[in-house]
Each structure stands twice: as structure tokens, then as C-alpha cells.
Amino acid sequence: xxxxxxxxxxxxKQGVMVTTIQELYNWGRRSSIWPMQFGLACCxxxxxxxxxARYDLARFGSEVFRPSPRQADLMxxxxxxxxxxxxxxxxxxxxxxxxxxxxxMGACAISGGPFKQGYNVLKGIDRYxxxxxxxxxxxxxPEALIQAFMTLQKKIxxxxxxxxxxxxxxxxxxxxxxxxxxxxxxxxDPPSNPGTWTVPKIIQ
Amino acid sequence: MAxxxxxxxxxxxxxxxxxxxAPLGLAWLWQKVFSPAKPNEIKNAIYECGLQSRGDAWxxxxxxxxxxxxxxxxxxxxxxxxxxxxxxxxxxxxxxCVSMLVFVLLLIEGLxxxxxxxxxxxx
Amino acid sequence: MKSxxxxxxxxxxxxxxxxxxxxxxxxxxAQHSLLIGAQHGVAVAExxxxxxxxxxxxxxxxxxxDYLDKEIPEKVKVTRQxxxxxxxxxxxxxxxxxxTRKRVEPGYLEAVYHLFSVAKKHGPVIIRMRTANRTDQxxxxxxxxxxxxxxxxxxxxxxxxxxxxTGHPDLRRILMWDEFKDHPMRRDYVEPDDxxxxxTAHDEVxxxxxxxxxxxxxxxxxx
Lengths: 204, 123, 223
Description:
The complex is a heterotrimer.
Chain A: H1 5-13, H2 21-30, H3 43-51, E1 74-78, H4 86-95, E2 101-105, H5 106-111, E3 133-135, H6 142-157, E4 182-183, E5 188-189
Helix pairs in contact in A: 2-6, 3-6
Chain B: H1 7-33, H2 63-87, H3 94-117
Helix pairs in contact in B: 2-3
Chain C: H1 4-14, E1 20-23, E2 33-36, H2 41-50, E3 58-67, E4 70-86, E5 89-105, E6 108-117, E7 122-130, E8 139-141, H3 150-160, E9 164-166, H4 203-218
Parallel strand pairs in C: 2-7, 8-9
Antiparallel strand pairs in C: 1-2, 3-6, 4-5, 6-7
């Protein structure tokens, strides 16, 4: 049951707080997104700068970097994912408890970046795990990472507890495990997870 | 019953218990209604370093570490006795010195035994 | 420091039978290098390190180079029997004909070592070794027993070029995973076809894009 916005403001002026469980739940989740503590390449330096005093990620309730995937809500793919590293990243993502989110930070994490034509770099981590927010840049500035956090918070705020559009962690049918690629003879096997990624269609 | 002097205590006890258990119950209820558990093999793996987990977390330590720790502890305690002995040394009689000597010798014998048994070699 | 020719002479007197060739470098820095026969590689390396005058005690860099099979067109004069009509009579005559033939020079893999001397403060001395071909005879002697610093770089060359260093203490892949079969830095390496839309495809990328589209049209690849 939705509360009328105007009525809510009016009640607030009189000292009465009205909310819904969904709002309370989303408020709680978006205000304490704990990222996992790991860096893959140079973007990690910008990520570290974001958490420090000048940019102060603590304002968003995200300063608690957890060294264990089991306690983290958010995975920041901060840098180049080499093909050799990809299975480890996917395995760590699988070990995170739901609800979990992914920010792909920087050109390499979203597409392979300058190494796109190389033999050793994954062309974007969204080939294996679902990414919530992409940040372009090489590396993105701390402001861009903060923007990504705000985008993610907005995304969480709009999630519904029930119904068709509910997020993956509330849906019994949605997958909880994502395929970990194997090391093949020429490439990772499979080269992408068809459940999460398809080749982008070219629209002329 | 209400006249019992312990009645208020009992009420407080029940409230305290409820205060602790109610959030747990609510969390359980929330979990039942909204968020389905989706365990899988990778999520339940023992280690979380990203590599494939191998083996069990219940590993056996060598008993040599245990002996090492005990020997350390004995001499740690001995130092506590030796310090007041050293401070009061000038004012002590012959009997006190002899009994302290026996105490230290007993411990040294233990060390010599451990040494001879090869406990102190780290291999 | 001694010049390359002097070093070559010194090596040839110290290691009898060592085949040393000077490969000149026409660039302004004139860093000429020494091509060393693979079978005397370790002996030559030990001489370069232990010789008091050279004392090349520091290996700064090892790298690999891949040379493909080369086709060299050659003009050859051949005598052939040609039928001709001379004075109204048909007869066969030997005639010299110039023909263009193609000679295939087999390719090879090469390891290049850059040596310096910390004690004498001179360098670099560059030595090279070549494999017999680039398919089945790809062994070179490892110089890790001579300069310990070569270990990881020789592993990298083994990984990316496929040169097998005999006598290496721990020859495994270092960058790619163990199950990997190819050697990505070789010139004829074929990347896995995971082509994806490129906004500004050109040159190589454009070629790959067209190949990929042809494959999709033939139904061999997805999208």
C-alpha cells in the first residue's frame, strides 16, 4: 500500500512518520552497502582514494570494506579482468550472500578497454556475472565511483518486495549460482555465460 | 502470585528474553516470507580465496607445536618466581636458596629431556 | 669495453668450435649482437660471465623473436629443350631461359640476451640463439644455470613463443594457464573468435569483423 506523498509530508510536519516495509527495507539496504575488499588493477587505486578522507565514501555508508565475500554486498570490479583471473572473480561472486550487486569500474572491466584486442583479457566482466552499474573511464575519477554508488542506491530504492519486477534475491526461480568458466586449450570455456550475456545487437 | 516479591523480576526476565528473541524471530519470518535461501556448492565452500576449495578446514596440527608451547609456558612461569627471588636474594637464608635451586633444576631437567627427545628441532 | 669483433675472437679462442656470427645493427646506437650456436650456448655464456676482462655478471633482459618462413623469389637460368623452326625445318634446340623460382627459407625462433657488467660498468653485450625451425626442433639451452635472473624470463618466452629451454630448473607456463596450448606472441597465432561489435573497426579489426560476419552467415558462429 503506497502512502500519498503529500499526506506523508503533511504528517511529517505534525511529527508523525509514515513508511512502508518496502521503503524501510530498501532504506536499510541502500544505506549500508558493504563492498568487498579487492582490487584488480590501477582502478583499485582510485577506489582506495574514494574511501579516504578527501572523497569519504563513509557518507554513503559504504566505508566498511569486507575482506570476505560472505559479508559483502557489493563487488567493485576495479580494473582489468584477465582471462586467468576471471574464474576466481566469478567464484568469489558466487560466494557472496544475496542481495549482491556489481559495479564494473573502468574501461577494462566493462569492455576489455585498451586490451580488447589482446589474447589475455576478458572483454568485459558482464560476460559471466550480471553487472548493475558500469562506469566508463581509464581510470574513472573518485567522483565517478561515487556517482556509481548513488546510481546503485537509486536502483535499490526502486526495487519492489513482491511482484513480477522483484529483484533476483527475492525471486525463488532466479538463479543463485553463476557458471564458473574453466581454463580451456585456447580460451575460457565457455567464452561467455549465455544466461547473463548475449552479443550486443548492431542497430544501423 | 502477584504479591510475590520475585514477581517483578520474573516479568523483567520474560521481557529481557523476548527482547532478545523477537528480532531473531522476525528475521526468521522475513527470511521465510521474502528471501528464499539459494545455497550452492561454491557458496558453501570452506575457503574464500577465489581458488577452488580443497580439503577440510579441520586440519591437524603437529603435536610438536603443543610441546613447544608448554615448554615456553613453564619457563614463562619460572621467570615470575625467579624475579622476587632475585630481588630478595641478599636477605635469604641457605634453605631458601637450596629449595629454589631444586625448583630450577627440576625445570632444567625437563628441558634437557625435551632437548634429548628432539622436540626443539623444527623439522 | 671490447668491440663485438674482439669479443667474437675471444669467444672463439676460449670455446673451440663455437660458431659465432656478428649481426650488425645499422641503427645509430650500433648495438651489434653476437649470434651463438645453440650447442655451445652454455659454454659461451659461462665464458662471458667468468672472463675477467668482460665479467658480464648481470643479465638485464631476455626476450624472444619469431621469424616466419620466408619466400624468396630468385631468378635462375635454366637450359630447356624448345621446339623451333629453323630454316623451315622443325627441330628441338637447347635454349637458356630465365625463370623465377621461389625458395622457402625456413623460419626460426630466437632468444635474445642483454648482458651488462656491474663490476666493470660496461655493456650491453647482446647474444642471440636460434632454434632449428619453429615447429618441432625448438630447443635451446637454458642460461638460467649461468644467470639466475633468466629463470622467469625464459619461462615467459616458453609460454608466449614456445621455445623449450633444456636445462631450465622449472619450465612451466608463467602467464597463461597450464591447460593453454597456443603461444600467443607467435606471428601465426590465431585468436579465439570472440568478436564483438566495434564502433570504429579498421585494418586488422575490420578484417576480423568481416571474417566473423562470413562465419555467422555460414552458420559456424553465433551472431
